[in-house]
Amino acid sequence: MKQLIALCFTVCLLSCGASKTVRESKKVIKGNWTLNNVTYSKTGTYSVTLFNDANKECFEGSDWQFIPNNNTGIYTITKSDCTTGGRYFNFTIQEIDEVSGYYDFLLKPTDIKGKSETNAGFRLKLTSLTDYQMQWQQTVNVDGVAFIINLNFTKTE
């Protein structure tokens, strides 16, 4: 009887956990990254505020730290003509299609204690993740037409 209970408990734990691919992605994302550049799917000059925080110029060169064991992180904007300092966030990686390799990446700004004022977050696609590079894409609608924002990172540690 004890073996049956132990087996049922193990099956529940394995079936409720994240997929193997998501667990591996969390291992890769762990550490420090630099957001090198922000690009758009359409050419032109745009005024885009990322994560309701700052413009793309402020984000380019920002430092990001991901702590996957508690799904938290901090990004730091360092450019002198921007509002500098660290911003805290919670994140979640959700597998949406194992075949294509695309994942939803949910980022929710928080305070230092992990609390969100609005409980609002941002859904992005984690379109590329290697040991040294990562890309997120956020799709927004501009006048009814899809507009994609690409955020390109390199690992610094």
Radius of gyration: 18 Å
Alpha-carbon distance between the two ends:
49 Å
Say how many strands there are: 10
What profile does the largest beta sheet have? Answer: 8 strands, antiparallel, barrel
Low-pLDDT ranges: 1-17
What form results from the Cα inertia axes?
globular
Please estimate the helix content: 10-25%
Strand order of the largest sheet: 1-4-5-6-7-8-9-10
- Helix-strand topology string: HHEEEHEEEEEEE
Report the portion of residues in β strands.
Answer: over 45%
Structural class: alpha+beta
Overall pLDDT confidence: 83
Number of helices: 3
Q: What descriptors fit this protein?
A:
about 160 residues; alpha+beta; eight-stranded antiparallel barrel; 3 helices; globular
Structure description:
This protein is α+β, with helices and mostly antiparallel strands and 157 residues long. It contains three helices and ten strands, in the order ααβββαβββββββ. It has helices at 2-16, 20-29, 56-59, and strands at residues 31-40, 49-50, 54-55, 62-67, 72-77, 85-97, 102-110, 122-129, 133-142, 145-155. The strands form two sheets. It has an eight-stranded antiparallel barrel with strand order 1-4-5-6-7-8-9-10. It has a two-stranded antiparallel ribbon with strand order 2-3. The longest helix is centred in the first third of the chain and has 15 residues, at 2-16. The protein is globular, with a radius of gyration of 18 Å.
